[in-house]
Design brief:
The complex is a heterodimer of chains A (155) and B (758). By secondary structure, chain A is of the alpha+beta class. Chain A has six helices and five strands; from the N terminus they run E-E-H-E-E-H-E-H-H-H-H. Classes of the chains: A alpha+beta (155), B alpha+beta (758).
Amino acid sequence: MPKYALRVNGQVHQVEADPEMPLLWVLRDLLQLTGTKYGCGIGICGACTVHEDGRAARSCEITVANAVGREYVTIEGLSAAGNHPCQRAWIEEDVSQCGYCQAGMAMTAAALLAEKPHPTDAEIDVVMSELVCRCGTYQRIRKAIHRAASEAKAT
Amino acid sequence: MMSTRRAFLKTAAGAGLLLAIDVKTFCAAETSADFAPNAYIQIRPDNSIQLWVTRTEMGQGVRTTLPMMLADELEVDWPQIQLEQAATVPRFKGIRLRTSGSGSTVGTYNALRKAGATARAMLIGAAAEKWGVEPATCRAQSGTVVHPPSGRKANYGELADAASKRPVPENPPLKDPKDFRYIGKPMKRTDGQAILTGKATYGLDTRVPDMLYAVVRRCPYLKGSVISYDRTKAMTVSGVRYVVPIESGLATGIAVAADNTWSAMKGAELLEVNWNPGPNRNFDSDRFLREMEDALSESGYFVRGDGDAGKAAASADRKLEAVYEFPFQAHAPLEVMNCIAHVRAGSCEIWVPTQAPTTAQEDIAKQLRVPVDAVKVNVTLTGGGFGRRLFVDYVPEAVEVSKAIGKPVQVVWTRSDDMRFGFFQPPSIVRIAGGFDNAGKPLYWNQRSVGCDLSMFGPLDEKAMADPRHYSNDGSPWGSFDNPYNFPNLQADFVRRNSPVPTGPWRAVEYPAQVFARESFIDEMAHAAGRDPLELRLELLQPGDILKLGDAKVDRGRLIGALKLVAEKSNWHQAAVTMPGRDWGHGVACNIYSDDCFMAQVAEVSVGKSAGDIRVHRMVCALDCGRVINPLGLEGQTESGLTWGLTATLHGRIDFRNGTAVQENYGDYEVIRMHEAPVIETHIIPSELPPGGFGETAVPPVAPAVANAIFAATGKRIRRLPITSEKLRPEKALCERFLEPGIIRRKSASGKSAQDNG
């Protein structure tokens, strides 16, 4: 089986995998980074969102072969102390219910804020409508994004 | 009456009995120095305080609410506690671990408070004896017992050993609610940090040593089967280890077990299977819905009979009639069904996101022919439940695979499996006729509901079915049986129509379909009579009037409170909003969930010129559900229930063609997303009455509130869900035959009537 060197959360991991195995399953089953979730498997729910070279990407749609040479960050690596402005804002707004989708939500929001530090509601809609939360926490997600934006500005 | 559907789903009631069972003394066995006065609490000499959560966390907040109740009476600081999740072990024998019927708060409030108070009394007793003082002069606070006159204090850990040797008090004093420290105060979710750092472990994230991963290639046909299969191609996938046919569970097929989930998925795809489509190869859900509609001509089981609706109809001055439709729905929780089973000789251990661990334990014991105590079910965090995880069909299949391969294995459903092979919300057809007397007073209500039994409860006892009051005895259908409106003549019945589709409880169970019909029709009646829909509801509810329905006592006054508050908060009586290029309207609906949660909602909606262009801008909710344990959690549950209801209103439906489900992912089974999510306002009516369960309450009024708002905006009446399937085309309604031109009017804020284009 082919071997690949993947950069995830600042570390290089050696994995042996089928070239077509999606990064999602490499993370979850080979690297035991289970914070990245399986939701739909076809890139339409966003639960598996990670950062690829700083941009939000669906790990269920990236093959391990294509992941080589890129830098990935998962929810486990979003911040060393679990205190990224999005993580803090999500907790402050008590966003999570079942919480299963929230890693993908927070990763997507973090990438959005990196690109647009003060997104409008319409900009939030465009990006966040690509994700699914079956518990219906959208209103709190929106508030948390605005909170994270204003806190990032304050610091 | 535990065998009935209603009782089965709602065993939250009867808190007295639960109290007796739940707060029995727990023998802490060999750990002598630990203080464990009951199953919920363990205090160790090192002052660590463990609290057990006996319900499944699936987003409704039990891992926050339940410990709040314990910690309040126990008098400990929130950061001191460590949460443990109850498994099916002897410690919890006799304690309910099942999570259903919005019953976790209702069913544990008394028991958990008593459990905390028991421990507190014993710790105070231990300190008082040690210090030679009267217990009444000591006080518990922040995990310590203090004796203010002498200034002495001891933490709970220091007192644990002595407390464990004291007799367990029968009736320890409970706190005065005014002294509550946590109950009634907003508390953020305990697992928030773990969730946001990827450390929260759901079922799918659970790993045990040497486990494999399995995916099942399932027969696409309802109750179809495998004729033959060829594993050759599947075995060529790297990592695939075993191919095992399975017979247990809901959708049989061939399991492929592999070193990782991806290999299992790929292997399952490459299996070549010859299916026997079985007896339902021609099943079509559209045809079934039409058959249900045809069944409206049959007379049904008795549901309600006050006065004489038939006679009243003959003398009514103005009458109308309409038929409403609610389709099949999927739960589609974001975490797919999954289960790890490790079968060993004579025993089995399970890790599973389930609402029913004890059922799983019993089922596995039967399946493996081992004693119940040889099966341990560990409950993981759950990525949404909504009723789907009340049924444990995905557990025996994991047991079957593990037994066959002799290794621990996690069976993972694909999203497509989850969407096509679950238990579905059954469809409903409801016809209501109603009318007014010649003085304009509401005179009669005549409702016929055609619906399905929930097949997950197994075949019904045909002898019991011979009782014409079978459904009424069961309190079904919810929303028709407990119709709160005070018509002098009110008749309701129920016609059974079952399909081969597996059906089970879905958030709010029977309420959504019945309440959609009931609250839409009240609105139709109001418009037919030129009345304000909210005012007509108030007329049909009288303060202090208790409606007795079997064991249920419905206080109409509490629903009035919710309606009045929602009117105030939504500015119901103020002028309509003008939106360029769009028609704006608001609609109201209300419901009583399970006789203890009262909710009214107003939806503000606008409709654009192109087909299906509907925006729900704002939903205002007012509710009375007794004492609120965690207001922050309650707001979250309102937002969640509303969004759930909105998905069913605007998008949700599962179709079956040729015996197989059509929709299989979030692309064709659309759910509400951020851009469609309305602003939601939750207004809580303070109450000192016992807490009501709230996980499902917000769902039922959503569809009628939105449909009524669309009528107010456009004059087009929605009677079929989801709304988009009507494309907002005007439907020739039965009721219009009874109406003279120009009668459908709505009042504007100025009191003038505006002509609708209906």
